[in-house]
Design brief:
It is a single chain. The chain has 225 residues and is mainly alpha-helical. Among the domains are: 51-126, Helicase, Ruva Protein, domain 3, CATH 1.10.8.60; 158-224, Homeodomain-like (Arc Repressor Mutant, subunit A), CATH 1.10.10.60. Helix content is 45%, strand content 6%. The chain contains 9 helices and 4 strands. It has helices spanning 24-29, 35-41, 58-73, 82-90, 96-110, 141-155, 160-175, 180-187, 191-200, and strands at residues 79-80, 115-116, 205-209, 220-224. The chain has a two-stranded parallel ribbon with strand order 1-2. A two-stranded parallel ribbon has the order 3-4. Helix 7 crosses helix 8. The longest helix has 16 residues, at 58-73.
Length: 225
């Protein structure tokens, strides 16, 4: 390793563990993640299932957090009642392990007993209220797109092809952080066609001006004449 601003190498012995909930292959294709960094990190990859799919891990983790936060807070030994344990296991944990840790920490801050009971666990206020029309958690992108099209067809009529095309191009352009090449690759179009469409929908403004003339503002592509 070389310190910033130095030329002298310092020997180190480290192991890097990195975690993400992003699909890095897709992020690389969209230009959001460096490919060289991906190959440096991707020596061994492990897919960790969400906590709701690992019910056997819930109580050991809960007891670990109880012991850790009890130590930090200077509490005596805290036990978990059977009813509280059942409630922890039956909860779906949308926030995974971080949510479990926060629930235990919050419970210990308010609990005035050496036993955590079911009523001491504050779970309901941490649940995210979901719309009854929200798509199922296992719905794939194609199914989600079909649902969106169905709603669009119900609420609008006429000129939908152009509206959908323009919305797709704008969304892709912003997803790619306003990079024309990445947008073209994402949509499977040539850069020239993508650029022409972006100009048409007003995402790129061609401003022909003399060299040295101040721009009017906005995201402008200058072509000197």
């Amino acid at each position: 390793m070389v310190r910033l601003g130095s030329r002298k190498s310092i020997p180190i012995n480290v192991r890097v563990l990195a975690a993400t909930n992003v699909n890095l292959e897709k992020a690389i294709n969209a230009g959001h993640f460096r490919e060289d960094l991906y190959y440096r990190l991707n020596v061994v990859s492990l897919h960790l299932h969400p906590l709701r799919e690992r019910p056997g891990d819930i109580l050991p983790l809960a007891r670990h957090f109880i012991a850790e936060y009890s130590r930090r807070l200077g509490y005596p030994r805290i036990e978990l009642s059977d009813q509280a344990a059942e409630r922890l296991v039956s909860y779906d944990w949308p926030g995974n392990i971080r949510e479990l840790e926060n629930v235990i920490h919050h419970t210990l801050l308010l609990c005035r007993d050496t036993v955590i009971r079911a009523e001491n666990l504050h779970l309901t206020h941490l649940r995210i209220t979901r719309d009854s029309e929200a798509p199922p958690a296992d719905e794939n992108a194609s199914e989600l797109l079909q649902r969106a099209f169905g709603k669009l067809f119900e609420e609008h009529s006429g000129a939908l092809h152009e509206q959908v095309e323009d919305a797709l191009l704008r969304a892709a352009y912003r997803f790619c952080h306003y990079n024309q090449v990445h947008t073209a690759n994402l949509l499977g179009l040539s850069r020239n066609i993508t650029r022409a469409h972006l100009i048409r929908i007003g995402e790129l403004v061609v401003n022909r001006r003399r060299p040295g003339e101040a721009p009017a503002g906005g995201r402008v592509l200058h072509l000197s004449v």
